[in-house]
């Protein structure tokens, strides 16, 4: 095994991080003094002990964010161009620390270092760079008066920050999900309390350090490390004006209930069970590679994973065998091994969940290709294909969040789209075909917030992302994200 980093460098990067919470520009211990362990899922060894933030710590962070926002504060009165330069500088600093971030993502989450270095970290930096330009481009409108003398009244709108935003992020893309939340909220002029997932807190702590270096005033970005109780305290806090959550649909529903106390604004990016439709007229080699990428990228720990594969009968065997061959060629191992293509699942809990679904599929009559544990240490599962599936199977209906795809054929005379849409989720979907008209019609009818045509897993800071149905509310990225963090105020002036 050829490691991207040797032990002394790993110890240097992890050891240099603060293990405390960032509140009001200072690194502080939890009020209780307690800590929790962050574990390397490849080795099952403890990486670091981190401050265990709870409700009291969430309250401290919210109060700091509120004070940082109030009229007269450095952040609220800062010229928009200067705010944009700080956000852009944070993107630059992320790139300056490219290898450190990639190392932390690999150690904490398990993903291959090479993937984090090539994708997660540059995309996170690009999010800050892109959003930095919006600080001077968020505009109101002057509106013509329709029912009154237009010379008597002036009507216009202002776009104003929603104020204090609590942001709760998942463990599958720790840095990138933080960037998706933090960058637009800063561009909008909000102040933030960020709660990273308890499984993967380390990259958020480095992000906090760099945010202060970039020049964010104290209290603008606060970071509370902890478990679900800290997130629940933020969602229910009366001085939080907005909560943005990415995670499971089950927890998303709890967030909505907790936010009802003061009717805070809520955006949710939740689960998925994305259908991938492959027609017989597709470029089969492209469809095979794209379908494998759709489900096996990031260990299948993707909310948009193409976990339901529907293939036209005449090419079904060819496509399934091609995806199976791709799966057999995926090197599963420690993310720091330079030859690794797929790392471990993030935790023992996730390992048990994924293998439980594989067992369920077998018990319900599916054929299993792959599915075995890899090695005897770490949370490694081989890429898995279920064939001979039926729509009512648990593994077909429920989100697995691992490298497991359920494949089924469909007849050319049958409309597959009602089946593809037969899910409570609607986050992602895909279609492979050479027929542009068929691609357009299929994309139109798929009930999902993102539809990929002849590709998968292409994201960009300019492209809105979010779900239909139980996959969530609102959109991340692009101009659309500012609907999450801005209020519209209408001003009417009597000119007489």
TrEMBL record:
Transmembrane segments: none annotated. Pfam families: Aldedh. Residues 27-491 form the Aldehyde dehydrogenase domain. The active site is at 269. Keywords: Oxidoreductase. Belongs to the aldehyde dehydrogenase family. PANTHER family: ALDEHYDE DEHYDROGENASE-RELATED (PTHR11699). This is Aldehyde dehydrogenase family protein. It comes from Pseudonocardia alaniniphila. The lineage of its organism: Bacteria, Bacillati, Actinomycetota, Actinomycetes, Pseudonocardiales.
